[in-house]
Every structure is written in structure tokens, then in C-alpha cells.
Design a protein that fits this description.
With 351 residues, the chain is of the alpha/beta class. Helices cover 34% and strands 23% of the residues. Strand 13 (245-250) and strand 14 form a beta hairpin.
């Protein structure tokens, strides 16, 4: 499938490298509001530079649009691409509000095109191995999941961190373990959340000061329809120390995944008090393979199914994010989540 990238910022190179390496994908071009960024991306990897989104969408060769714009532009760019009949894979979140995300899901269905959304780290070897252990009953009845998304001060490495801070830690990094937990254990039904701003005044790499308008530390309790409770912390202050990853606790055992992002994460199982390393189902990709959800979308179109990283799941996650925001702004009051999604199937090699 021919792929074009919209938005050539911090993460675009990693996507483009994996697109070029994939036998299922062909990079045909890119566009960005800063033309030099798109020019640099394709100069190293091939493809055309489009002067605008409209020019990119007018190219009949383009079948799949990869939307890597800033979070506030995800929904409008995705909507425009879907309206022109293109398949779309969006970086997270699908939209900043659930109603907008749901409208994109409905638009994709009406136009008969595929819509998928990051994060798709569930496609990793460690994550698929963990899921198989859960399905096979190695943990017994799972009751609670602890998830830590401690990401630290992003201004120490990101040249323009304001848009990520504006979106918030849950939207940027909390969605990774939240998406994995809901994919495995089902839709959310109720949320309670609390938040604080630990350090409001920040300084960019170039010395420019800025001030946070949203909390940089959030903790949420997410009750799932299956009865599993997820306790999730996301922060742009505490760094990635010992508390990072997923702990899944069942009646028979506990499972620890050192990181929720990387496919080669360490995985440990504890049937009693001591944890022991678990071999992964196959040799893992080192880190995150950004092409995997794109390749799954290609297969989904050929097989007439929804992508595993479906728009419906992403829209449900956005509703959870809405509920988290409503809850902590209301002093931690419970907020119901009403949407649902069809859970994804495990990858074939992990069955």
C-alpha cells in the first residue's frame, strides 16, 4: 500500500524508516507546514514533497495517510483524509474529545475506508506473550492492573514541548498502558481521577520559559466491564525510574512487564513471592516497530476486517481520557464511560 506522511516532526523519521523497510508499504511522499522538514524526510528515504495536505490528498497514488501532526490537528487532518477516500493511521490520540473521535469512526465506516490509531504497542512480542499467559490462565483470575507512565520533564529533550504539555501526560503517554489494558481486559465503565501540578514553570532547550496550563501528575482508577480495576499514573515530572511498566495481578500469580512500549521488554512471572524471567514467544523487535499497525491495516483491508488498532478502540480510549479529565476537575468524583469496542484478536503468531 502506498503511504504518505502528514507531519514530519519528532517521530516521523522512526515511522518513515520502518515504512521503507516493510515489504507491504511504499513511502510516496510527505508534507509539513515547515517544508524543510518534509524535504529532509524524503531526501533520506525517497518520495515526493507535497506543498500542502490538499496536494497530498489529490495524488491518486496515495492510499494510506499516516497522520503525525500535533494532537490538536489529529482530528481535522484525519477527517479531511477520510473524506477523500484515503485509509488513515493516526498518532494518538484519535481526537481530543470523544464526540469528535466517534464522528471519525462513523465517517470511516460511511466511506468504506480503514481507520487505525496509535498506540499499537500491544503488537510487540513481550505484550503478546503477556496476553497469551493471561489467556492460558497462568495468572488465574485477574483482579487488578498497576500501570506507571512516568515520563519525566520532556523539555529536557524535546525542542518544542508545549503541545505535548497542553495535551497532558495521560493523552501523550498514559494511553499506552491504558490501550493495552483495555484491549486485553475489555471496555471501561467508570473512572475516578486526581491530579496535581508539581512544577508549573518550565524552560525550553533554547532557554525560553513557559508555564503549564494542565496538571503534570495524574492518577486514575479505571473500572473495566470485566471487573478488572486499572490503577494508572501518568506524569511529566517523575522520571522513568523503578516504577514504570505494567503489573498484572491474578489469584494464582502476578506478571511484571518492565516497559509497556518496547517489544523486547523484560517479562517476569511470580506464582509465589519470587519473580522469574519468562521467555518471549519469538525473537522480539528491539524497541517499537512503528510499521506493525500499518501492516495490520493493509492486511485488514485485504481481509475485509477492522484493523486491530481500531478507530473504535481509540475513540473509546478518548472517552476514558475525557472521563479522567472530568473526574479530576470535579475533585475525584466517579464518571461513567458509556462507549464500547470490539476487542482485537491476538496476532497469528501469538495464538
Amino acid at each position: 500500500m502506498n503511504v504518505a506522511v502528514v507531519g514530519c516532526g519528532n517521530i516521523a523519521g522512526r515511522y518513515a524508516d520502518r515504512i521503507v523497510a516493510s515489504p507491504l508499504l511504499e513511502l510516496v511522499g510527505a508534507t509539513d507546514i515547515v517544508a524543510d522538514r518534509a524535504r529532509e524526510l524524503v531526501a533520506e528515504r525517497g518520495g515526493d514533497v507535497y506543498a500542502s495536505l490538499d496536494e497530498l490528498l489529490a495524488d491518486e497514488r496515495v492510499e494510506l495517510v499516516v497522520n503525525l501532526t500535533a494532537p490538536e490537528f489529529h482530528a481535522p487532518v484525519t477527517r479531511t483524509a477520510l473524506e477523500t477516500g484515503k485509509h488513515v493511521h493516526s498518532e494518538k490520540p484519535l481526537a481530543l474529545r470523544h464526540q469528535e473521535a466517534q464522528e471519525l469512526v462513523e465517517l470511516a465506516a460511511a466511506r468504506g475506508v480503514a481507520l487505525s490509531c496509535a498506540p499499537a504497542t500491544l503488537f510487540g512480542e513481550a505484550q503478546q506473550t503477556a496476553w497469551k499467559l493471561i489467556r492460558d490462565g497462568a495468572l488465574g483470575h485477574v483482579r487488578i492492573v498497576y500501570a506507571e507512565a512516568n515520563w519525566g520533564r520532556i523539555e529536557v529533550w524535546h525542542p518544542a514541548p508545549e503541545s505535548l504539555y497542553a495535551a497532558g501526560a495521560f493523552v501523550d503517554v498514559g494511553v499506552y498502558p491504558l490501550t493495552i489494558a483495555t484491549a486485553i481486559f475489555g471496555s471501561a465503565r467508570r473512572v475516578r481521577a486526581f491530579a496535581e501540578t508539581l512544577e508549573a514553570d518550565r524552560v525550553r532547550l533554547d532557554g525560553t520559559p513557559f508555564r503549564l496550563d494542565v496538571p503534570d501528575w495524574i492518577v486514575a482508577l479505571v473500572e473495566l466491564e470485566t471487573g478488572v480495576v486499572v490503577r494508572l499514573t501518568a506524569t511529566f515530572w517523575v522520571g522513568p525510574g523503578k516504577q514504570r511498566g505494567l503489573e498484572i495481578h491474578g489469584d494464582a500469580a502476578s506478571l511484571y512487564m518492565a516497559t509497556w512500549g518496547e517489544a523486547d521488554s523484560r517479562l517476569e512471572l511470580s506464582p509465589r513471592k519470587e519473580y522469574a524471567a519468562v521467555p518471549l514467544l519469538r525473537e522480539p523487535y528491539p524497541g517499537i516497530d512503528w510499521a506493525r499497525p500499518l501492516e495490520d491495516l493493509v492486511d485488514a483491508v485485504a481481509e475485509g476486517r477492522q484493523p486491530r488498532a481500531s478507530g473504535a478502540h481509540a475513540a473509546h480510549v478518548v472517552e476514558i481520557l475525557d472521563a479522567i479529565r472530568t473526574s479530576f476537575e470535579g475533585g475525584g468524583r466517579p464518571v461513567d464511560v458509556r462507549s464500547s469496542f470490539e476487542p482485537p484478536a491476538p496476532l497469528e503468531w501469538a495464538l
